[in-house]
Amino acid sequence: MTETVRIGVIGLGNIATIHCTNLRQLDQPVSITAGVDVDPDARERFADTYDAAVYEDAAAMFGAVDAVLVTTPNRYHEQYVVAALEAGLDVLVEKPLAHTLESAERIAAAAEAADGFCMVGFHNRFADPVRTLVGYRDAGEIGEVSHVEANYVRRRGVPGRGSWFTRRDVAGGGSLIDIGAHAIDLALHVADHPEVVEVTGETRSQFGVDEDYAYVEMWGEDRGADDFDVDDSTSAFVRCEDGTTVSLEVAWATNRPDSQEYYVRGTEAGARLDLADQSLTLFETADTGAMHHRTTDVETRRSDPQRREQARFVSAVRDGTPPSENTVAQALRVQRVMDAIYRSSETGAAVRVGETEP
Length: 358
Description:
CATH class of the largest domain: Alpha Beta
Shape: globular
Oligomer: single chain
Number of domains: 2
Helix content: 25-40%
């Protein structure tokens, strides 16, 4: 491999722009070498912006790069991730792993057989408050984690009604598979990845289907409710093999304030993690001198977790060593939880994770 890591980007929309902006700011020799998209206008914009070669067919690009970023809509993750892995390339794919559990399982099988590695874009793990909390957990200062309360709630935040985000055939789901994937992953990550055994959940479509949906701003264009057939909120409860539990609140749209708060309960201490302002607070109770509560605000550096994720990916490509974090196996566990939540909502019953029927 050349000293400069040559990156190819597949899917040249808004998410690709965020990734490329971060790649340009890395303190590593990396080149945005090529891009792939079925849209000729997107290819032209990418070529002009990054002075990169562009292709309609990904296979034509593989020989020119060392690794690829897959930032397509969810339905096309499998197609491009598997092809890149079979070509011997390393891959960073945006979350979720795929649009369905079956597709995610096929990606996992391809990654297991590949010479290259696949990393999945759960970038919140790289935020300094998260890394600090995990460090306290690993040092034993939290004790045994018994419960995580995970919230990723927007007051009004449907990401473009009528876009691929709100179409089940392309996205695979709505708020749960979009932002809920982040919340589930982070909850399991701070709990040290326990094995999930059972899920109960309820998904709802209450706001996005309303032609009179009111909002202040929208990430994409509002094309109306005709192409909205996904969930806009989810409530769920997750049970793990070791007794750890996770309560989950996810929403694109609700009548309550935004929240990206996580509460972690441990036998020695608890924590409140807020990704919105990157704050971390620890809660302890002791009898040193006298019975008392101790609440500690932890100051960490503010950093861009997506940029740190990309730096980790580029380093792993250069070193030829697959990263131990953000693995396909961990992403597949998140996919299984999401699939079980959807099945639980459909049937009104708890679902054993890994089984095809509740």
